Amino acid sequence: MFRRLSFIGLFVLAALFAGPVVESAQACPNCKEGIKTDNQMPRAYQYSIIFMLTVPATIFTGFSYTFYRLSQQNAAKQQSLDPEVLAQYDERVITALEQKEQE
Questions:
Q1: What pTM value is reported for the model?
Q2: Residue 70: its pLDDT value, please?
Q3: Over the range 12-48, which residues count as b (16 or more CB within 10 Å of their CB) and which as e?
Q4: Which of the four pLDDT bands, split at 50, 70 and 90, describes residue 93?
Q5: Would you call 53 exposed, middle or buried from its count of C-beta atoms within 10 A (0-12, 13-18, 19+)?
Q6: CA gap 36, 42 in Å, rounded
Q7: What is the distance between the terminal CA atoms of the chain, rounded to a whole angstrom?
């Protein structure tokens, strides 16, 4: 735990000291000139960045929701099973394990 906190503290200190030294980001020359001549271009760049960020988030959310639904369906199936059938299954598993240990 201490190592993790020291690593985070070291990272924060490095970011604080390196911040003033790092220059601001510059666009490539073609992009810079294209943005200067057209007023709609910066908004188009903003939309493209937002689109590129939302696609992975949407895919991750879709997979997460699918796994959540599958786990909920599995839990509902387990709850709907007859307790007597489960007890018989448990007894068979226990006896098989006991036989395996005796061998």
A1: 0.43
A2: 93
A3: eeeeeeeeeeeeeeeeeeeeeeeeeeeeeeeeeeeee
A4: confident
A5: exposed
A6: 9
A7: 45
pLDDT in tens, 19-30: 666 565 566 666
Write out the two tokens for 24.
């601001």
pLDDT of residue 44: 79
Task: Give the ranges where 1-103 is alpha helix by DSSP (H).
Answer: 2-18, 29-37, 41-80, 83-102
CA distances from 86 to 77, 79, 80, 82, 89 (A): 12, 10, 11, 6, 5
Could you tell me if 75 and 67 are in contact, meaning their C-beta atoms sit under 8 angstroms apart? no
- The residue whose two tokens read 């070291």 is 10
Pick from 43, 86, 79: which is nearest to 51 by CA? 43
